[in-house]
Amino acid sequence: MNVFRLAGDMTHLSSILVLLLKIHTIKSCAGISLKTQELYALVFITRYLDIFDRFTSIYNFLMKLIFLGSSLSIVWYMRRHKAVHRSYDKDQDTFRYQFIVLPCLLLALVINHKLTFKEVMWTFSLYLEAVAILPQLVLLQRTRNIDNLTGQYVFLLGAYRALYLLNWVYRYFTEPGFVRWITWIAGLVQTLLYADFFYYYILSWKNNVKLELPA
Amino acid sequence: KPMESFKDEL
Q: Which chain regions cross the lipid bilayer (chain A) (predicted)?
């Protein structure tokens, strides 16, 4: 565990807390893509299939539980909670799951470390996480007024990915034989998807104006 | 190195 990895996890956790804060206290999920949230829930379910039979540390175990629980509760809120559900921009959140899920599944079946169920599911979760933000980015682009919490949520998610890249660079130089092509390429693709958003987010922050993405 | 050790990240 290095400082980049820990900072990355904490940023990831903060992004989820910001989203839960918005949903739980303001009772609003305006500007949040349910499709992205459901894809993240699927990411955690398929990645942590080994949660009960492969123990690495208390820290990992608890974080896995937190990620699973929070992602499922966000989906529950957006689908089942009346007030929250009413604020959901359903008509704008039109990205199709199959365009994301099927290619990731096929890729995981072809490019993996071992052709077993758990291994393919784990690889699938990496590919899926890389592109799961797409419905959210599409929704952001369609939303005229991006509120602060939504902007912060996406910014924190992007920052988490950037910190994980630094973590891998650090591990590459400090742990002999640390090479993980699948994780790295999926992570790099994921981080690049945020580049455009980052650019406009920092611009709006610098000029102290409301965040708005060009159409 | 066994592939299992790849999974110490979240």
A: 55-77, 97-115, 121-140, 152-170, 182-202
